[in-house]
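W.,

You were right to be curious about this one. When I first looked at the sequence I had no strong expectations either way, so I just let the prediction run and decided to look at it fresh. Below is the sequence, 803 residues in total, followed by the output.
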Amino acid sequence: MKLSYKWVKEYLDLNIPAKDLAEKIERTAVEVDSVSRLADGLKKIVTGKVLSMENHPDSDHLHVCQVDVGEEETLQIVCGAPNVAAGQTVIVALPGSRIGGNVKIKKSKMRGVQSNGMICALDEIGFSKDVVPKEWEDGIYVFDDSVPVGEDVYSYLGMDDDVIDLDVTPNRGDMLSVLGTVHDLAAIYDQKPEIKQPTVSEDAAIKVEDELSASADQTLAPTYKLRVVKGVKIAPSPAWLQVRLWTSGIRPINNVVDVTNYILLKYGQPLHAFDRNKIDGNINVRAAKDGESITTLDEEERKLAAGDILITDDNKPVAIAGIMGGLDSEISDDTTDVVIESAIFDSIQIRKTARRLVLHSEASQRFERGINYDTVEDAVNEAAQMMAELAGGKVATGIISATDTPRELPTIHVSDKSVNKVLGTDLSLADVTNIFDRLGFTSVKDGDGLDVTITARRWDIEIPADLNEEVARIYGYDNLPVTLPTGRMGVGALTDTQKNERALRNVLEGLGLTQAISYSLTTEDKAKMFLTRNSSETKLSFPMTQDHSVLRMNLLSGLLDDVAYNKARKVGNVALYEFGRVFFKDSEEQVRPEEVSHVAGVLSGNLVDKSWSHQSVKADFFMVKGIVEKLIKNFAPNGEVEFVADNSIKEMHPGRTAKVLVHGKEVGFVGQIHPVTEKQFKINDTYAFELDFDLLNSLPKNADQFSPISKFPSIKRDIALLVDDAISNDDLLKVISKCGGAYLANIELFDLYTGENVADGKKSLAYSLTFENKRDTLKDDEVNASMEKIKKHLTDELNAEIR
């Protein structure tokens, strides 16, 4: 909300710098983004009269003008604007002046003709193109004849006004208007604002009931009022109104549309003006039908959904209520009769419609946050009177009120004791009453406190805590007593889950992976990838984009997007992990999804690049499997870890994927991305894993215990085996561990061979076994006995050939 300081000072006696006022607003009401003045940085820009104009002798579009700037000699200025003409009062930048963008204007020659200055357009002296009136957007600005020559232009263009840009929070919708802000400042500075009640000069010969009627659904439009103004003449607005609008960031259009925007700024009440002659019959407010369409003022066709609030005549839609009018009923240069709409619409439905259509307007912003019931009629009355005065129209007698629901003003009980207890102050009941009086609330003494009736313009106040806040901010936060907190101070500590999460990150980053953070919202197709459990999608009702419309049910699809992003930028070696939440629903009817923490990782290309001291290390299945083993080992689970071949996840390679089981429970999977999926994401060979962190964290764990290094020597023995291809390493490890005895401390596979000298269907494996006795010196006989037992069981159970 851009607030004109001059406009505020029309209602309040303020003699402080704008920056001081802005600081007061920020400390008391809402945040202030900036305080600016268009004239800052400009100099030597004055009004000038074009005395004569001739075509440039060496150009088909330049003109040589003689301009009176209030000095003894006229200035010769070469101007290229298509609308420059003799007799105009224009903006002149004198030689040595500074215009917009800190550009310095010097005397120069333009195609051989001397030019002593510049005739300026509004955007050339600092105005945004968005607020330049349409009639001046392609040329220079021309003043009214009443503007004197040789004066600084700043006051005539509103450039000497300070503009305070308010960042209004959703609960303070009352401050999205000049009068709402004035009332708040009046309470802060203990003043009574001078606000006149609008009066309307109605034409007795024109009865509004003879012109129009209206109907409205009260649940959609609790208040809906119309006025009719006949015989208007569409023309540019007077300069004072244009200045007021563009100072507030709104582009002037014409004298009818500008009045509605002026009232919007003043009252915070959005109005809409219809061309009466383009309306068939009467006006109705109803819920739209699903699939119904309307072409809005921006010339876009909008498809509506059931429940959207629609304004129609007897045959067609004419506006999307509270958001934007229809193109078929807009005010044009031929308009003679105007219907002015002033209403209150269902704020929740306005917000839903605006978000779904991605159509946010000044009107929808205010309807979403709330409207003052007390000024709905005042706004339409003042608008009708202004149109009569500025456009020469006649106001029909009477107002059409399709609905008129009064707002029930809440009454809240509060006492000075309760206020002082919360704020730590020592205010008397009279002090509290005075603050409520300044805010415009009605206070009645009741027992030990006050019954406070809230004014309609402060619809954000509903409970005693809200009144405590009002007392605090008007009394002044700086005046509240300062005390140190008391009580016992606890020692902060991480929970076990937080410790495990941090340890997980340390392990993965120590293994060379980099953390990535992906969006929790994705597409429906990507959300359903890599599923390890049945789940329904959680769809957003009003997504910002279709690419972010469903809550994710896996982390890998987001990581694959990251791999693709890097590959597209010639980064082939990618090692990423992500820790985050995924969202599952057991059925469509489930409202709130179950949130589960997962951890996932991807490897593509080389994990280690080639260097002078070592070769490159390419990512493969065993590398990502090793990362998962290390990760799970860090949880110290009290159970066996198994990897079981799996082909149930269609996005994973069926021959290079394994389920990860801990103590018989499936905690995730590891493997290579399916070539079809890699092609879909436009990536090369990629290996990945995804684990259920919450399940891993909940499994029984081995207690951390100190294990001293044995002071007795260990004994190592190697064993080489020839087994069938169908026998896995895991099968061999189980037999060796079972038969190795109490002194078997470690088993390590150090060789795997197939090929020459090994029969088809066979493979050769070699293991190094470490035996250790921590209480005594281990004897060879004990180790030999264990080795013989191992060999026997390997031979008997797995038909292994000892080599």
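Here's what jumped out at me. The mean pLDDT is 93. And, maybe more interesting for your project: The longest helix spans residues 780-798.

Coffee later to discuss?

I.
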